[in-house]
Amino acid sequence: MRSDAAVYYESLSPLTPGDEELLKKLVCRFGGQPFSELAWEGISSISRSGVEMKLSFIRLRKYRWVHAVKKSWGERLYYIPVEKLIQLLTFFFSPGDQHASDPSGLHIRCEAGPGIALDLLHLLAFAADQGLTLTAKGTVHKKNLQKLQKLISLKEEHLWRLALQYAHQDTYPPELAVILDLLLCTGLLSPNTGALGLEEKRLRQWLCLNELEMNRLLLRAAIERYGQSDAAMQLFRYIICMPPFGEGKWIKVSSVLQWMEDERMLIAGDCSDKAAAWLYVLAGFGWGDVAATVDGEFAFRWNIEPELLPGSAILYEYGDENFFVQPDFDIICPPNVPFLARWKLLACADLVLCDRVSVYKLTRSSVGRAVEKGMSPPEILSFLAANGAGGIPDHVAAAVGQWGNDPLKTVGGNGLTDYTYPLIYRDKMDEAHGNMWSESFYDEHQGMVYSGRNVHFFEPDDDIPEPASLFPGYEQVPTRWLHDLRTYHSSTARTIVEQAQSWQTKIVLNLGGKRAEFTPTKVYPSPWRAEGILHHLETGRFEPHELRVEELGELKLILPPFD
After folding, report:
1. How far is residue 6's CA from residue 209's CA, in Å, rounded to a whole number?
2. One pLDDT digit (tens) per residue for the chain, 563 residues
């Protein structure tokens, strides 16, 4: 089987070197942000005519490196899809390992949090347990907001530098807005009548992912939804995910920004504060540590492998660690405990500490709630025994059994049949394979943070111009203008130059007995002269030139192939 990289490089093979040159410039100028016809036509190349650039752009659209949408009033916007952008960054750029920072002189400014996946899990469990009813204004009730903030490790200090804009900004602190936005845009929560409701099928698929895959999807979502929307910072967010900046390596941020400036992606001095703001977000999400040098320069170290390249399948697999039931009724939960086990643990235990190693606690009230949700005492003990390393201390098992039997007396019968807390029993994947998570799942549902991403709101436009449309009146042009290098009457020679300027193409001519190509950009009628770029074919040198009437000797109109 061919590798994904082989398939990718094969997809670039139809492009000419000129096509690739334009594509690289589009990446550096616009990243994955939308741009207009006028904006991209402002990109020039001293060695290529305007029509050559336009033909390249048509080919980039034909081979789906550039997509288009059309606004309701007919304006067309172009963009490089994110999946393509990630591929192209690895193709065009090799940052190297010269951006490493000496760890001995660093002072930690912000350590990685426990992880955004755990924050989502704990808020989802709260929604399953107590519900997320909404006020008449469509916001979560104020009495629940403080409870939700205590459940998550993401804090305002991680986000305030971004100055996020989001719905109900006067009600939600930024950390809750981001968590709710992620849950909404992933489809794990959806607004129903008067409440934010759990989507059980989507939830089951999510909990069957391992944390590696959760982080991969959430990193893609975070890069697109919470970073500054300008192309320079979008490129920075993806660049620092490239292989040279992998897990455990300290990155000197100013060095990366300077390299990006050398590659004409940004102006380093304008981006240092924005870059630092993004690093704090990564730390808050649990993905790395922020530090500073003695000179106040920022450094960053990933504590995950920031894998973003498409093609590697999203795996549904469980972690392989168990939790530990302690004699004091605490339950110690190491990092690799499966999320589905954590979900069921939250149904019968209270969260005490959220960290890389989390702590939950069995209490009379937590066991009582579990029984009310549909778990009988034997089922609670069976779950703890199946997922707990070292068994359950006898007195803990006896207490859980006793506590569970006392609520049973309160609710009557042997438990509930209409389970309000989902997935207590459905610990298999069931329909998980029926709807795999897409790479752009964060566009499938409406969130609440204004991300600046808008192309998906418009109608896709696959109407690609025919190359011949770039040469209006081609049929009326004498064929000898295109095939014969010859001397013409001065009026005809001027007409040929003007035709070249109209089509944004070149002429070839003899200047001082030496052959050259000239790309006219402006023509002045009185006295007649043409400004443009002269290419000396013998030396390969390019230079600005003003072509005068007396220089119009032998010449020929050049058209690039356009079939």
Report:
1. 27
2. 344 556 566 678 789 999 999 999 999 999 999 999 999 999 988 899 999 999 999 999 999 999 999 988 888 999 999 989 999 999 999 888 778 888 888 999 999 999 999 999 999 999 998 889 999 999 999 999 999 999 999 999 999 999 999 999 999 999 999 999 999 999 999 998 889 999 988 999 899 998 988 999 999 999 999 988 899 999 999 999 998 888 889 999 999 999 999 999 999 999 999 999 999 999 999 999 999 998 889 999 999 999 876 444 445 445 568 999 999 999 999 988 999 999 999 999 999 998 889 999 999 999 998 998 888 899 999 999 999 998 899 999 999 999 988 786 665 544 444 456 788 765 444 444 444 566 666 666 788 999 877 787 789 999 999 999 999 999 999 999 999 899 999 999 999 999 999 999 999 999 888 999 999 999 999 899 999 999 999 999 999 999 999 999 899 999 998 76
Question: What's the rounded Cα separation, in Å, for the pair 318 and 555?
Answer: 72
Sign, CA dihedral 173-176-180-183, equals positive
Rounded to the nearest angstrom, the gap between the alpha carbon of residue 384 and the centroid of all alpha carbons in its chain is 38
Q: Give me 217's structure tokens.
A: 């999807």
Angle of helix 211-225 relative to helix 116-130, nearest 10 degrees, comes to 100
Q: State the Cα–Cα distance between residues 149 and 349, nearest whole angstrom.
A: 19
Question: Does the pTM of the predicted model rise above 0.85?
Answer: yes
Asked whether 235 and 261 are in contact (CB, 8 A), the reply is: no
CA pair distance 5, 7, nearest whole angstrom: 5
* Tokens found for residue 525: 């009628």
Element of type H or E holding 202: helix 200-207
d(CA 31, CA 523): 34
CA atoms within 13 Å, Cβ hemisphere of 237: 26
In whole angstroms, give the CA distance from residue 32 to residue 19: 18
Instruction: Work out the number of other CB atoms within 10 angstroms of the CB of residue 46.
Output: 10
Query: Around 499, how many Cα atoms within 13 Å sit in the side-chain half-sphere?
Result: 22
Residues 6+ apart with CB under 8 A from 324: 331, 332, 388, 389, 390
Query: Measured between alpha carbons, how far is 345 from 88 in angstroms, rounded to an integer?
Result: 43
CA 396 to each of CA 173, 341, 348, 532: distance values in angstroms, whole numbers, following the listed order: 39, 19, 13, 86
Assess contact for 237 and 213: CB atoms under 8 A.
no
Angle at which helices 268-284 and 253-262 cross, to 10°: 130
